[in-house]
Protein 1
Amino acid sequence: MQTVHLTVPFSYSVIWTKNIFNKDNLSFLDAIDFNESTKKQNCLFIVENTINDLHENLNCQIKDYTSYHNKYIKFLGYEVFKGGELCKNLHFVEKICKVFKEYKVCRHSFIIIIGGGSFIDAIGFAATITHRGLRQIRIPTTVLSQNDSAVGVKNAINAFNNKNFIGTFAPPFAVINDNQFLQTLSQRYIISGITEGIKVALIKDLKFFNWIVLNADKLKTSDSKELQYFIEKTANLHISHIENSGDPFEATAARPLDFGHWAAHKLEQMSNGTLLHGEAVSIGICIDAHYAKYLGYLSTSELEQIINLFKTLGLPIYNELLTTLKNGELDVFEGINDFREHLGGELHITLPKTIGDSIQIFKLDKDYLKKIFKYLKEL
């Protein structure tokens, strides 16, 4: 008997820039890894409808940019589709795969995805299953996607009433974070995107959490230097975890970056998209932070600091969906079962041991969770 162990490395670039399609900005050329000896790179641009509407000249800018750099880029097309959480379904993926077929894209082509996190999830998944993987360049356009989802290695869609039930782990070829796209975001989307930064700070970085508390009001403005620092810091914490945790494709049961998500994913699904992901995670973090206090980890003052931060930002700490019954049981508790199934049958819940550090627990007391829901409603 002989056993051979293989190690297959992967790498991708995360680029920070502004006005990516200004003809003098070479960041896009860096992303496609051009050089004088390479042939033209085929590029198909897939754009979320809201971005196309808010940036009326984007189509022309991209065509002008690719024309100016036509020595290195072959412009295949510019397609616009409706995004949002509701686009994460098999029918939409089939439609996108058909577009790839119509444009005759191959594994040497680039799919340029411009939009928010849900849109990038769905188009990215379609790209990973076409020809066993097309090269995707993500250009995220929201705070949440720039600091979290787009810089990671996941692609997924929803199915069978489960969030991200069907998906792949497939690193992008590159990610380009362009601050200019944030300037057209509504304040609701800006604030919602802050939640994932609070999440990662609570379990990994006390100093960063304290910085967020001190700068909470300044983070609500799209063009503030504080928001840009926040996005880069949060993205780097997520990138560091992917690169250094030893588990980039989440083969083990522990999922520290899913802190606050067992309830959040279920609430998001129950709301039919009316709750933004960050808003659902805000509620989920408040639930799990209170549970951490119940177990003797967080102090009362730490819990109050967390709750007050969300309230200062204008993020929800409670939603009436927490009282919805299904077959005589609170429907949100199905999120615990979904989480257990997602983790391979054994429940692993990440909680803050103290602010800036985390611990894993393996069961949840539903009776006490009900008390937490009541407490959060009173707050």
Note: The chain is about 45% helix and 20% strand.
Protein 2
Amino acid sequence: MAEETTSPSETSDSVFKKSAEKEWMELFSTAFWAIAVALVIRTFLFEPFNIPSGSMKPNLLVGDYLFVSKYSYGYSRYSLPFGLPLIQGRVAGSMPQQGDVAVFKLPSNTRTDYIKRVVGLPGDHIQMTRGRLYINKKLIPREPLGMIIDHESDGSDTEMQVFEETLPNGVKHIIYEEGDNGPLDNTREYIVPEGHFFMMGDNRDNSQDSRVEDLVGFVPYDHFVGKAERLFFSTNGNAKLWEFWRWPTTVRYTRLLKAVE
């Protein structure tokens, strides 16, 4: 009875097949661990965000891309992908401070991220009167720095007054004001509830923030995603996606790696 034999070509095909399977398994394993590491970094350390509006001018511009530190305020369900309700309340947390620029989930629609400055802490009394900010009935000082022309993305130009504002804890930041008689320049007195914060944009007359109660209002502590730390990219958006030859001229090089103030 003749014995079965394997031809050299069959042996070669078998070795090639096993080698290809091994390469695919290594590729899958590498991709799996890369995704796992990225998810860990995004969930517990840093998450990238981009600025879609001018509400934080002049400190943040449309087209800025920044990293938000997730660990700064601890972790809540909104630290997790898709807001999975796996964390009750907030764990390993530290309180946001006046002057922090923070990303949070919009209370009226938690699928939406907002970025504003922390102005009021739990228990604070906040009010705008003739364009001036009062915290706990004390006028917050602002120093005039002059006038500028703000160029809007729609091509319009707006004259802005520039001020340096100093919060009660000594944090200084720049704000824009068109004037002191806008729709949000005279408000009732807000009393920030326990476990909540009052957020405002630096572009005071062009910001949907805690002064707009039916949209933002007081922001719960567990809605905070993290503290805005540093820009990693910025573009003025003047080039189309396919105009790759124009990309270098659209980068705002002076803003790269700039700390968020």
Note: The domain at 43-83+91-255 is CATH 2.10.109.10 (Umud Fragment, subunit A).
